[in-house]
Specification:
two-stranded parallel sheet, Fungal_SecMetab_SDRs, alpha/beta, 12% strand, single chain, Rossmann fold, two-stranded parallel ribbon, 188 residues
Length: 188
């Protein structure tokens, strides 16, 4: 996305994740990339980030929420059997993957230029879709890659290009839809 010179990006990095690649991008695009750290389990942290966006940029044209977690080193591990399920892990995953994004949308609604029925009623509607990136070669998928069929493990760059194509072509009639990396609608 930073290849588009007219875009300024604001990335919210989860407090559990330190990604050197993000810091490298910040150094490469210091005027066009702003990284804010937040904790999706604390509403005041989300509110502080939204206020920072409002003060610095006034509004947003696009929100891409990619904050989901499956594991956090020494804190949260994927459950592979029922014997490994822990309530605290389930609650943390739910807070970050479900509650946090809803709070972000609620707090950013005033900052966005104009989630599904509400969006369509605005003068300048925005689109809310869900995306599945496919199986991407990252630390998240590494423990499960041995079962991935040939040709179905994607590079980050390939997956991002596919998702951006879907995002850039989404229309208001796509609200509430769930799309796979290849543009196919996923029933849900």
């Amino acid at each position: 996305m930073l290849e588009y010179p007219c875009l300024t990006l604001v990335l919210w990095a989860l407090k559990y994740v330190v990604v050197q690649g993000l810091l490298d991008l910040k150094n490469k695009f210091p005027k066009r990339l702003n990284i804010l750290q937040l904790d999706l389990t604390i509403e005041s942290s989300i509110k502080a980030c939204t206020m920072s966006v409002r003060e610095k940029y006034g509004s947003l044209n696009r929100l891409i929420n990619a904050s989901g977690i499956l594991s956090i080193p020494n804190m949260l591990q994927p459950e592979t059997t029922l014997n490994r399920v822990e309530k605290s892990s389930l609650m943390l995953a739910y807070e970050v993957n479900a509650v946090g994004p809803i709070l972000v949308i609620r707090l950013l609604l005033a900052v966005t230029k104009t989630v599904s029925v509400e969006f369509e009623q605005k003068k300048d509607p925005i689109v809310c879709i869900l995306l599945h990136p496919g199986i991407v070669d990252t630390d998240l998928s590494r423990p499960f890659q041995r079962n991935v069929p040939e040709g179905k493990l994607f590079t980050k760059e390939y997956s991002v290009q596919k998702l951006l194509n879907i995002i850039n072509n989404a229309k208001s009639h796509d609200n509430d839809k769930f799309f796979a990396w290849d543009g196919q609608e996923i029933p849900w």
